[in-house]
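Hi support team,

I submitted a single chain yesterday and got back a structure, but I'm not sure I'm reading the token output correctly. Could someone confirm the output below corresponds to the sequence I sent? I've pasted both exactly as they appear in my results page.

Thanks,
R.
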Amino acid sequence: MLGWSKLYSDGAPYSDDFFDFTNADASSQKRLLYLNDSDRDVRMLDRHPEVRKLFIKYNTAIASSAPVERLFSTGALVLSK
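Hi R., thanks for writing in. Yes, this is the structure output for that exact sequence:
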């Protein structure tokens, strides 16, 4: 057997090759297409809708209170003069 060199304690073989994707399912193959895509522009996400959904979900701007704090600080300066 190619790629199998050791056995689990129950006797089942496991592969040493972490990057062996010969038995990958369809969704894994889609992710591999994304990772192998040479285009690095954001528009590439149009070709990979699953990755685009994750990109929009997790790559969002973090809310910040700094603009509001600057506004109140400026308002305090105006009122104190």
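A quick pointer for reading it: Residues 54 and 60 are 10 Å apart (CA to CA). Let us know if anything else looks off.

Best,
Support desk
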